[in-house]
Amino acid sequence: MQFSRLRLNGFKSFVDPTDLVIADGLTGVVGPNGCGKSNLLEALRWVMGENRPTAMRGGGMEDVIFAGAASRPARNFAEVTLALDNTDRTAPAAFNDADALDVVRRITRDAGSAYKLNGRDVRARDVQMLFADASTGAHSPALVRQGQIAELINAKPQRRRRILEEAAGISGLYQRRHEAELK
Ligand code: ATP
Ligand code: MG
């Protein structure tokens, strides 16, 4: 399973629909300060189910919606689509019946987030599990934020263990065990 495209609409500074092809291998994003490089990585983490406003550098989840500029009014929603190539059929079993997967997350002011997987309504948990099992989740060490290395060094052992579990691809199992214990 590979990322193939990231589409943003009304997400942070990306007010106009923006389509990004993610090719094989290493992708570099270059641009002047404040042009939106970190916003792109946040969009990627957000569509995979990130729910901590602090990870989005905001006070609340609605802060990801384009807030307006001198010449443009604010938007009422933000939407990010992540297209995945699954021609190698390595997606987790529950999602493994298609060559391509389109994950869409949309947030509307006062109405919260909704997710779709190939056009079907799904829960946040379904999307989080898809990526947790594929070891690329919203909290995955594959995405390294500015300042995150220092955070990792200073982290408490329990937090560091979570990061290692996600890297090992077992955080989905951990979540399922937690849910089973609650039942
Ligand atoms: P640097 O090189 O300094 O790290 P960067 O390319 O990573 O910069 P970002 O932090 O991604 O830049 O983008 C910051 C820009 O995004 C700022 O201009 C900020 O005003 C804008 N921005 C953030 N959230 C919103 C929002 N909700 N609505 C509109 N603009 C936003
Ligand atoms: Mg940045």
UniProtKB/TrEMBL annotation:
List of residues binding ATP: P32, N33, G34, C35, G36, K37, S38, N39
Entry's localization field: Cytoplasm
Family under the similarity heading: Belongs to the SMC family.
Domain remark in the UniProt entry: Contains large globular domains required for ATP hydrolysis at each terminus and a third globular domain forming a flexible hinge near the middle of the molecule. These domains are separated by coiled-coil structures.
Cited function: Required for chromosome condensation and partitioning.
Subunit structure: Homodimer.
Name of the protein described by the UniProt record: Chromosome partition protein Smc
The encoding gene: smc
Full protein segment contained here: 1 to 183 of 1153
